[in-house]
Every structure is written in C-alpha cells, then in structure tokens.
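> example.struct
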C-alpha cells in the first residue's frame, strides 16, 4: 500500500524529527537528495545548464542548497527569484558556489528569460506544502517561459498545485518529475493534481509520520493479502453468490459484460435478473450464470439498466432493483441504477459513477446544478459529498479512479492509477461492476472491493494488449490470468 499524509501531519512529524537533529540537517538531507536526482537526470540527458526557480519559503531553500551542490559538481547553475525574501542560508550557499542569482537587486545584468530559454533542467522550488493553490504572480511568466525540451524537476510538489490534491490548477507547474521528501503527500496521488507530478521519486530524510494516512493506493503487492482465495472447505455458496440486475431491452451488452466479468473474477455463482432479450443473451454467452431471482450475498444494480423502463418485464426488473436497494445486503450501484438512489442505505454500498453520472446524482440529491466540469475540477470533494449524502462509498471512475468513503467512517480515500488510457472504452465500466460486485459478494467491504477491483481492472486491461487498444470483453477475459499472476507475486 502506498500511503500519503496531509501537509499538517507531515509538518508535525518534521517538527518532531528536527528537535532530534542539528539545525538545518533536515533541509540538507532534502537538498542533497534533490541534487542527486537532478545530477542523475542531467547525466542521462547529457545536459549541463540548470535554472532553479526559487520561492519565498523552505521549498525555495531546498532548491537553493541543491543549486549550490550542482554548481559544485560543475554544472552551470542560475537561480531566478522575485522580490520576496528567500532562504538566507540557501542563498549564501548558492552564491558561495558560484551560482548566478537573477532577481531584484541581484545580478541585474542577467536576463532570466535568456537563462531559462537555454536550460536543460529546471528546478521548480517556488512553493511546497506551504503553498496555496495557484502560482505567485511573479512566477507565472517564469513557468510560461520554460522551454518544452527542458526537464522540469519539481521540489516536493509542482508549484501552484494544491498540496491537498483537491483542486486542479491548469496553469500551475506540470513537472516531468517530482522529488518529494520523507513521505508521499495527497497532491502526488489524487486525480486533480497527479497529472502534474510526473515521475515521483521519494528521498529518504528519516521521516516517519505517526498519524492515519489521508490517501492510500492499493498496489500489486497487496493483492495476495486482500483477494478472496477459496479453500478446500468452500463451496459455491460460501464463496459468494452475486445477483446482477443489469441490461435491458436496449443495452443488452452490459448484462453480458457484467456477468462475464463476475464469473471471470471467481464469483461462487451469478444470478442474473433482466428482461427476455438480455436474459437469452446471458444464457447463450455466460453459461455459468443462472437466471432469475434467488438468495444472494450481494447485488450489482444498474449497468445498462433503464431506470424508466416500462412494460411488464422492465418493471419487474426495476422491482427487483428496488428490493435489492431496500435489502440489508451489500449493493454496488452503477449507471442506470444510480437514478434509483435516494436515501441512505445502512448496509455496505458502493456507488460507481463516472464524472457525468456523479454530477447528475448530486444535482438530484442536492437540488443544486452540479456539472461534469465541476466534478472533474474537484473530484474528491464531489465524491465525498455524494458519500456523505448517501452513506455509501463512492468510486469515481476516470483515468485515476477515486474510492471515497463517507467522512463518518474516518477511513482514508483510495486513489488508483493502474489503467492504460485504452481502457476508456464502452463497456469497461460494466466489467468493473462485475469484478467489484464479486468482491462484495465474497465479503470485502466497499473500500477494499472498489480499490482492489480498480487495480485488477487496470492491470487486466494492460495485460490484455500491452500498449494497444483493448475491448471491454477482453478485459473481462483477462481477469483470471491477471489475478493468478498477482497472487503469485
Ligand atoms: N519543514 C521541514 O522540516 C522541511 C521542509 N522542507 C521543504 O519545505 C517546504 C515547505 O516549506 P514552507 O512551509 O516554507 O512552505 P513553502 O511552500 O516553501 O512556501 C510558503 C511561502 O509561500 C507563500 N505562499 C504560499 N502560497 C502562495 C501563493 N499561492 N502565492 C504567493 N505566495 C504564496 C507563503 O506566504 P504566506 O502564506 O505567509 O502568505 C509563504 O511565505 C516543503 O515543501 C519542502 O520543500 C524540506 O526542506 C524538508 C524539511
Ligand atoms: N483516460 C483513462 N485512463 C484509464 N482508464 C480510464 C480512462 N477513462 C476512463 N477509464 C476507465 O474506463 C472505465 C469506463 O467506465 P464507464 O465510463 O462506466 O464505461 P461504460 O459505462 O461504457 O462501461 C472506468 O473503469 C474508468 O476508470
Ligand atoms: K515546488
């Protein structure tokens, strides 16, 4: 599990550690780690010219000390600062090492724009975890002037991005690599900001945070611990029967994809409930599934479901969906099923909207117009709002998939980034529903079921056709081999 801690918890841990160390030792460790990464990247690319953008806080201090070390190693290093006071010790070290300092009252003859234009590597030390979202005004032209072919190495986090990872800031720094210190922070894992982080390198500065993590990411190494592996004492019922209320006369494929994914994920049994056409197709393509109602351990309600279906068979299916939602069994609610969610369920519940579906759900639940763009600009906040309004865990699908439990649970948010962009294809969500539903039926809680399913879904998509297009059915068919490979790690 990768874990990230909030800026406040990191600061408290740093303060405690600093008490035990000589003054300046922690920043020295950070700067040395940063300089080592910068030197390695310059050696890899054959570059020699470095420009460090230096802000008013300790993030700028890290950049200044690293600039000094890089100059001592023989690289051509310049620092660009604005009118703000910068870290004094760092500035003195940089000057001592022969770094050119450009800014008000400094080496006025030098033109920051020309220096930046020639840079092979740009160290972004404008703001760190003390930053508010958004770049300080003098830094915006610097960032805009960074040449496309320069390697942007962010100190701790890409400046101007939200350290909490909540809000997206499109014109802040987008780094090729971020060197962070001690522990990972939410900005590095959450969907609003992770695209700006680039490659993430963690430098050990001896820091340990003794507080609950704010964000977690399930990794391939966690699968063996979490996946429900049957034993000799199991039978199909003890492994978990999943009821699937999916597909209609219009979206028949969703039923097939969801049921296929469930049987490929090792469900004990699938009971499919739907109108005649998808029922016939499920019978023909997923012979393992049984059709019609019966006892189940969990439900999937919604893939391809028409929440306004009329006609006898459609209404019968909606009646089963309503009873599933009213039951005390775990339920995964996806797509059309989300239109049936009104109040709170007490039993374990996993909602799996994409951004548009979450916007629609929140608009309905809060009676305030919520747009897809708003959800994408602040995904954690919107998923949290839906989780708190319904008592459910909300899995928000996207390039990075968030799994957000209600605030009252006190649990960390999960953020999974395992899928190739090829997975953005129709039917992929139906496969995820069958996979996560299987895990609910096996007794996993919604947070583990959702995050583990997102991981396996992404890995299966990549394994199905590495580096190329993949159809949803191939993702489902890839699940058995993917799970076996992950269990064998
Ligand atoms: N603590 C440690 O032991 C270690 C810390 N380390 C390093 O320190 C970094 C944290 O340093 P930090 O706390 O000084 O915060 P940092 O982000 O550099 O700057 C804050 C300054 O910026 C200002 N400001 C903020 N937002 C702004 C905005 N949008 N636009 C304009 N101004 C803005 C803000 O002003 P104010 O809020 O007072 O108005 C304040 O003056 C951390 O990320 C890591 O790199 C490492 O060395 C390891 C050991
Ligand atoms: N850019 C992307 N990169 C990786 N995965 C993505 C991307 N966009 C979407 N996905 C994933 O693809 C799936 C799409 O699901 P969904 O939108 O519900 O499709 P459908 O309803 O057609 O089945 C989700 O699991 C989502 O996380
Ligand atoms: K930074």
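> example.seq
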């Amino acid at each position: 599990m990768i874990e990230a801690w909030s800026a406040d918890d990191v600061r408290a841990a740093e303060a405690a550690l600093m008490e035990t160390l000589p003054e300046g030792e922690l920043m020295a460790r950070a700067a040395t780690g940063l300089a080592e990464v910068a030197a390695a990247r310059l050696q890899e690319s054959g570059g020699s010219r470095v420009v460090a953008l230096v802000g008013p806080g300790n993030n700028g201090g890290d950049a200044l000390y690293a600039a000094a070390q890089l100059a001592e190693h023989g690289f051509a290093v310049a620092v660009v600062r604005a009118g703000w006071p910068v870290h004094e010790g760092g500035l003195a070290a940089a000057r001592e090492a022969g770094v050119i300092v450009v800014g008000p009252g400094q080496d006025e003859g030098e033109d920051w724009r020309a220096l930046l234009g020639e840079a092979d590597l740009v160290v972004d030390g404008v703001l760190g975890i003390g930053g508010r979202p958004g770049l300080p005004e003098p830094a915006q032209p610097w960032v805009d002037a960074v040449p496309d072919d320069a390697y942007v190495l962010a100190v701790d986090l890409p400046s101007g991005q939200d350290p909490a990872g909540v809000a997206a800031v499109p014109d802040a720094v987008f780094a090729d690599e971020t060197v962070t210190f001690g522990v990972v922070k939410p900005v590095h894992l959450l969907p609003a900001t992770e695209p700006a982080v680039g490659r993430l390198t963690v430098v050990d500065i001896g820091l340990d945070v003794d507080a609950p993590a704010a964000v977690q990411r399930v990794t391939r190494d966690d699968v063996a611990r979490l996946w429900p592996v049957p034993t000799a004492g199991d039978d199909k019922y003890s492994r978990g029967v999943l009821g699937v209320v999916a597909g209609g006369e219009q979206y028949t494929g969703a039923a097939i994809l969801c049921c296929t994914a469930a049987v490929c994920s090792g469900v004990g049994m699938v009971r499919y409930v739907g109108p005649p056409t998808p029922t016939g197709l499920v019978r023909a393509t997923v012979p393992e599934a049984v059709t019609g109602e019966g006892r189940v351990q969990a439900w999937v309600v919604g893939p391809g479901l028409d929440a306004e279906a009329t006609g006898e068979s459609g209404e019968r299916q909606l009646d089963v969906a309503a009873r599933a939602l009213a039951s005390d069994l775990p339920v995964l609610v996806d797509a059309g099923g989300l239109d049936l969610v009104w109040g709170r369920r007490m039993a374990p519940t996993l909602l799996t909207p994409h951004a548009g579906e979450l916007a629609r759900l929140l608009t309905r639940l809060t009676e305030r117009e919520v747009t897809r763009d708003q959800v994408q600009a602040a995904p954690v906040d919107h998923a949290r709002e839906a989780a708190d309004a319904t008592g459910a865990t909300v899995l928000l699908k996207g390039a990075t998939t968030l799994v957000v439990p209600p605030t009252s649970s006190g649990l960390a948010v999960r953020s999974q980034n395992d899928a190739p962009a090829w997975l953005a294809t129709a039917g992929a969500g139906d496969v995820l529903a069958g996979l996560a539903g299987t895990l609910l039926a096996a007794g996993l809680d919604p947070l583990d079921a959702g995050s583990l399913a997102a991981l396996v879904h992404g890995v299966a998509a990549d394994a199905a056709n590495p580096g190329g297009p993949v159809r949803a059915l191939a993702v489902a068919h890839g699940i058995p081999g993917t799970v076996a490979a992950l269990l064998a790690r």
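> remarks
The chain has 17 helices and 18 strands.
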